[in-house]
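[User]
Protein folding is very new to me. Any chance you could explain this protein sequence and its structure tokens? I have pasted everything here:
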Amino acid sequence: MPIVSQLHASLAEVINTDDPVTFQLYQNELGLQTTLLYPFVDRAIQSPDLWVNRLVHGDLVQSAQLPERYTLEWWHRKLAQSLPT
């Protein structure tokens, strides 16, 4: 899947590979997210760079308001709800 390789390339740019443990943790998280999103990976992840940025830096603006359906924020919230804390 080309989107998955784009995600990992974007992650390598954001997380310096000088920290292999952190890089591996984010790689595992991306693998889990793409598995849970399958077969909607291409629909959910429109921009691999923005997806990785949000994964690494989190939700920069916390809002109680629900995000618009099928946006980046919506998909991230859906994934967060489906994972145990």
Q: What stands out?
A: The mean pLDDT is 87. The first helix runs from residue 2 to 14.
